[in-house]
Amino acid sequence: MSSILTNNSAMVALQTLKSINSNLADTQSMISTGKSVASAKDNSAVWAISKTMESDVKGFKAISDSLALGESTVAVARDASETVTDLLTQMKEKIVGAQESNVDRDKLQTDINALKDQIKSVVGAAQFNGLNLVQGTDDVKVLSSLDRSNDGTVSASDIAVSRYDLSSTKGQLGTGVGIQDLSANITSTSTTLDNTAIRDDGAAVPTDADITIGGDASTSDFSFDINGTVVSFAVGELSATAGTAATQVADAINAAQIDGVSVVANGAILEFSSTSAFDEISVDGTVTSGTGSLTADVSLAERAESFTFSNVDVNKGDGYQMAIAGQTFTYVASEGDTMEDVAKGLKLSVDGGEIDGITTEVSQNANSEWVLKIDNDDAATRTVTITANDDVNENAVVSGGLQGLDLINVTTDEGADAALENIETLIDSSIDAAAGFGSAQGRIETQNEFIGKLTDSLKSGIGSLVDADMEEASARLQALQVQQQLGVQSLSIANQAPQSILSLFR
């Protein structure tokens, strides 16, 4: 049926043309924006995912900036640490030169003082944007990543960069309520320092450590091995009388001038003494033939007193202090310190006090405990008073990593000897700092490279979700343009259909 009121063909053609125009508009928008999903109405799920990923990309860009800032800061600290190491090495050269007595030590000390000032200048200037990693003790966190979990929550990750304090700040014990006594962590052979030789068991009666000659010494071969130096007597070289034989043995051993060892004959008894500061000396007597005899071997302990530090954890603010001859020597632990640092720090302080006759040494015992040995070669007896506490209130002043630098003095024999040992501790501290900063810088560089690659991957993923396929869009545009032209023609034909009804009325 034909009707001039309702043109079904025109309506169909019009709807088709509208659909074509809508698709053509979408295709043109896709071509102009380059996106297949430009807004939430295009595909709400994909659009939401892409926007979340785009926000992460912007976050990672900020993280990359943070890593670049952190890397630069650590690089400055590493350069400073390496420079301090070079300066300390130059100082060591001066100290080695001061070991000779016929050099101008005052001029060498002047050079050393100049190097000290330069080290302080480097440490003070080693800052980037106001942050100095070679001063202070608190770790610095560098933002390194944003981690998104399955439920959508986001958490930040950091790279912790440890500070290495290369200042020469003198430590100060904490005070106040809550301070706990840590002096039990130090055990000592004695807190009285004198120049008395100690026998093998430290007993008050000297004869407990002596060797007694018995029998007919003239019939025997005798041999005494004193720390590798052998003094021997063949048959007939010693008197048959034990007392005379003991005198002969004592004279021969003393004539050998064995370092740190002397012996006197008291009747038939050989009374050995040691003036060795830090070495135990063994005396092994052997009778290989005849009727002569020896009561026992002896072991002569070192003259120095030992202060042993227990194998316990050291916390920031833990302080250990020794008072000797009216002077106090303090070391307060920094973050990450161990008992090795405490023992060596106290040694640096004691050596800097330059007390007449006092020398020190740090070593480990059989239990891997660190031991500070203090020897007194002066006639005056000194007493050591030990104070140690933890700083639960955090009001202590921690010792700088180069504490003792200011105390290096090579103008005396004792000072030159101590400086040669202590400079190694200072160099080790600066090397540890440079190595630590180098490791941190390498990690930050690696993380920054990863963040760059991760950002590129996210951008690629976003593109695969929302970017338009331009080849497909171009081909679709041409097809839709042809469809549009045909649709217009179809609508035109459909609109002319009612004209045919007029012919029926003519």
* N-end to C-end Cα span: 19 Å
Radius of gyration: 44 Å
Compute the number of strand runs: 20
Strand order of the largest sheet: 5-15-19-18
* Rough outline: rod-shaped
Low-confidence parts = 199-208
What is the level 1 CATH name of the largest domain? Mainly Alpha
Query: CATH homologous superfamily of the largest domain?
Result: f41 fragment of flagellin, N-terminal domain
Percent of residues in helices comes to 40-55%
How does CATH name the architecture of the largest domain? Up-down Bundle
Oligomer: single chain
CATH topology of the largest domain: f41 fragment of flagellin, N-terminal domain
Mean pLDDT across the residues is: 86
Element-by-element helix/strand order: HHHEEEEEEEEEHEEEEEEEEHEEEHHH
Number of helices: 8
| Number of individual domains | 4
Largest sheet: 4 strands, antiparallel
Proportion of residues in extended strands: 15-25%
Indicate the structural class: alpha+beta
Brief summary:
The chain is α+β, with helices and mostly antiparallel strands and about 500 residues long. It has helices spanning about 10-35, 45-95, 105-125, 240-255, 340-355, 415-465, 470-495, 500; strands at about 125-130, 130, 140-150, 155-160, 185-190, 190-195, 210-215, 220-225, 230-235, 260-265, 270-275, 280-285, 295, 300, 305-310, 320-325, 325-330, 360-365, 370-375, 380-390. Helix content is about 40%, strand content about 20%.
